[in-house]
Amino acid sequence: MSLRIAEIFGPTIQGEGALIGEPTVFVRTGGCDYRCSWCDSLHAVDSKFRDTWMPMTTRDVWAEVTHLSGGQPLTVSLSGGNPAIQDFAELIAMGKEAGYRFACETQGSINQAWFSKLDTLVLSPKPPSSGHKVDWLKFGSCLAAAKDCPNVVLKIVVFDEVDYDWARVVADRYPELPLYLQPGNPTVDPETPVDLTETTARLRWLIDKVTADKWFAPRVLPQLHVLVWGNQRGV
Ligand SMILES: C[S@@+](CC[C@H](N)C(=O)[O-])C[C@H]1O[C@@H](n2cnc3c(N)ncnc32)[C@H](O)[C@@H]1O
Ligand SMILES: Nc1nc2[nH]cc(C(=O)O)c2c(=O)[nH]1
Ligand code: SF4
Ligand SMILES: [Mg+2]
C-alpha cells in the first residue's frame, strides 16, 4: 500500500484533546479535501508543498515509526492533511500486532472502514470561522464507520462567539461523544513567534464562556505543544 506522507515525527507529546500529554509519534499525510482559513498545517494541505510529500509503503512508514520509538510501543497519531483520504488498514494491523496504539485526527468528511480498528478517533468538525460548512451526512458516515472504535471523541476549535454558539449546537447533536474545546491559534506561520499572552487570553475567554454559561459537558484545553514550542513543525 502506498501512502502519501508529509512528515513523520516524534516521539513528542500529544498536544491536543483527549490524549493530551501522551507520548506519541505523528504520521502526517499530505493532502486535504478542506482548506481551513486558519489551518496550522498548510505544509500538508496546500498543493504548492506537494513536492515535499513522499510516497511511502506501509512498511517504510512502519520502519520509521519503530525507529523513532526505539521499538517501544506507544500511541501513533495519524493526522494530516486528511488521513482519511488514505488506506491505513495495513499499518494499523502491523502496529497493533506489536502492541502500538493508534489514534486518528480527521474533520469527518471521509469515512474509512479502518476507523473501527483505531483505539481513538478524534472527529474535529470545522466551525464557521474555518470557511467550511460541515456535511452532517458524511460526518454521520464517519461515526458509523467507527462503530467498533472504543474511543470516539469530538474536538472543536473555537475562535469567536459564532464558533462557540455552533459548538453548543454540535454538542447537543452528539451528547454521547466526549467533547473537547480548544481555542484557535491565529498565528500559524512557523516563522512567526506565538504571542503567549494572546494564547492565554483566548484560553481564558473560552473558559470564562463555558463557566458563565454553566456548560459542564466539554473539557477546555490549550494546544500544549503551542505553549511549549510555538508553531514549530515536527513537535
Ligand atoms: C491540522 S488538523 C489535521 C487533521 C484533520 N484535517 C482535522 O482537521 O481534524 C489537526 C487538528 O488541528 C486543529 N487546528 C488546525 N489549525 C488550528 C489552529 N489555527 N488553531 C487551533 N487548532 C487548529 C484542527 O482543527 C484539528 O483538530
Ligand atoms: N504535539 C502535537 N500535538 C498535536 N495534536 C494534533 C496535532 C496535529 O497537527 O494533528 C499535533 C501536532 O502537530 N503536534
Ligand atoms: S481539515 Fe485539518 S488539515 Fe485540512 S485544512 Fe482544515 S485544519 Fe487543515
Ligand atoms: Mg497541529
UniProtKB/TrEMBL annotation:
GO molecular function: 4 iron, 4 sulfur cluster binding; carbon-nitrogen lyase activity; magnesium ion binding; S-adenosyl-L-methionine binding
Assigned keywords, A-Z: 4Fe-4S, Iron, Iron-sulfur, Lyase, Magnesium, Metal-binding, Queuosine biosynthesis, S-adenosyl-L-methionine
Residues the entry annotates as binding Mg(2+): 41
Class of enzymatic activity (EC top level): lyase
Reactions the enzyme catalyzes: 6-carboxy-5,6,7,8-tetrahydropterin + H(+) = 7-carboxy-7-carbaguanine + NH4(+)
Cofactors required: Mg(2+); S-adenosyl-L-methionine; [4Fe-4S] cluster
Annotated GO biological process: tRNA queuosine(34) biosynthetic process
Ranges that cross the membrane: none
Listed PANTHER family: 7-CARBOXY-7-DEAZAGUANINE SYNTHASE
Family of the protein in this entry: Belongs to the radical SAM superfamily. 7-carboxy-7-deazaguanine synthase family.
Quaternary context: Homodimer.
Descriptive protein name: 7-carboxy-7-deazaguanine synthase
